[in-house]
């Protein structure tokens, strides 16, 4: 594939704007259209960049020269949009979580395989410089055998459709398990076989879903993992949240603070401090890796199966919460 032509399905998730900017910064790819049921949400960017707009995503998929799509719709629509794209013979990169049930994620993967198109899960945290260096150190054996990983993905409550279970499929436990769970899967190279979780609504009154989560996992190679997935950061916090890990091995430990490359900025206009990240853009490198895979005809570097593995842990977490005990794969 010489110069892939890419479209975007939905800007419901704010990551879509960053992914678009990454695509526009890559001379080896061409963005040929955007579809969103809410035209006002994308009108400014379609006008600024001269991009074609489609109200119905099927009209975008009907474009013969379209090679691939980036899907950033509400979680509940990921399966529909991915399956339709695959049946239209378009490669897919889909926002996390890949889906809201194991059955639909398996169907997404199977449909893409049947139509011989790539399905990549959007896990940009794999491209954070600190995470890359930590994974390389583990692979070299710098800290011996990994024994345990403690992680956090604590953020501010996102509001909008994220807190509507009918559109999101869950709350903080689903929203913030999948990123760091994927990193744990990647770093250990092992499979989770036991999940024990806690979830509740503690920080925001009358929220229709959980805003607090703590998930514990046991891998089939004996490694333990624990992850704080809460929406516990207040509006006054300088940034949306964090991604951290403490990787403990037999010969040492690695501490990862993914967004530590920052400038502290204090604004009279907003009345609070801000963290301004100055490190490499994880979104840019993720999108670039997807485009490179298409051009070179290689498999997507983060597969649909990767997305399924991490989302399945979150879904089992909710099952554990209901039962009040560990559940097993």
UniProtKB/TrEMBL annotation:
<dbReference type="InterPro" id="IPR036291">
    <property type="entry name" value="NAD(P)-bd_dom_sf"/>
</dbReference>
<dbReference type="InterPro" id="IPR000683">
    <property type="entry name" value="Gfo/Idh/MocA-like_OxRdtase_N"/>
</dbReference>
<protein>
    <submittedName>
        <fullName>Gfo/Idh/MocA family protein</fullName>
    </submittedName>
</protein>
<dbReference type="Pfam" id="PF01408">
    <property type="entry name" value="GFO_IDH_MocA"/>
</dbReference>
<dbReference type="Pfam" id="PF22725">
    <property type="entry name" value="GFO_IDH_MocA_C3"/>
</dbReference>
<dbReference type="InterPro" id="IPR051450">
    <property type="entry name" value="Gfo/Idh/MocA_Oxidoreductases"/>
</dbReference>
<feature type="domain" description="Gfo/Idh/MocA-like oxidoreductase N-terminal">
    <location>
        <begin position="19"/>
        <end position="122"/>
    </location>
</feature>
<dbReference type="InterPro" id="IPR055170">
    <property type="entry name" value="GFO_IDH_MocA-like_dom"/>
</dbReference>
<feature type="domain" description="GFO/IDH/MocA-like oxidoreductase">
    <location>
        <begin position="132"/>
        <end position="254"/>
    </location>
</feature>
């Amino acid at each position: 594939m010489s110069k892939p032509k890419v479209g975007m399905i939905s800007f419901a998730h704010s990551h879509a704007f960053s992914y678009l900017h990454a695509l526009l910064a890559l001379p080896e790819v061409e963005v040929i259209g955007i579809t969103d049921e809410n035209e006002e949400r994308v009108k400014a960017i379609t006008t600024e960049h001269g991009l074609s707009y489609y109200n119905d995503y099927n009209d975008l998929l009907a474009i013969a020269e379209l090679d691939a799509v980036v899907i950033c719709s509400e979680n509940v629509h990921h399966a529909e949009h991915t399956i339709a794209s695959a049946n239209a013979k378009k490669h897919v990169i889909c926002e996390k979580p890949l889906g809201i049930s194991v059955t639909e994620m398996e169907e997404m993967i199977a449909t893409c395989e049947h139509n011989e198109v790539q399905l990549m899960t959007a896990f940009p945290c794999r491209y954070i410089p600190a995470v890359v260096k930590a994974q390389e150190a583990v692979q070299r054996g710098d800290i011996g055998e990994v024994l345990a990983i403690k992680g956090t993905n604590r953020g501010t409550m996102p509001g909008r459709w994220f807190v509507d279970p009918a559109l999101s499929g869950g709350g903080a436990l689903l929203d913030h398990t999948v990123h760091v769970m994927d990193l744990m899967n990647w770093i250990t190279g092992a499979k989770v076989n036991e999940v024990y979780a806690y979830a509740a609504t503690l920080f925001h009154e009358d929220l229709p879903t959980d805003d607090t989560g703590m998930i514990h996992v046991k891998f089939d190679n004996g490694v333990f993992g624990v992850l704080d997935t809460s929406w516990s950061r207040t509006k006054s916090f300088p940034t949306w949240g964090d991604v951290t890990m403490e990787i403990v091995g037999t010969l040492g430990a690695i501490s990862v603070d993914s967004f530590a490359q920052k400038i502290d900025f204090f604004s009279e206009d907003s009345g609070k401090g801000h963290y301004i990240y100055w490190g490499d853009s994880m979104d840019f490198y993720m999108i670039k890796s997807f485009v490179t895979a298409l051009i070179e005809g290689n498999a997507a570097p983060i597969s649909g199966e990767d997305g399924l593995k991490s989302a399945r842990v979150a879904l089992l977490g909710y099952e554990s919460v209901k039962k009040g005990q560990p559940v097993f794969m």
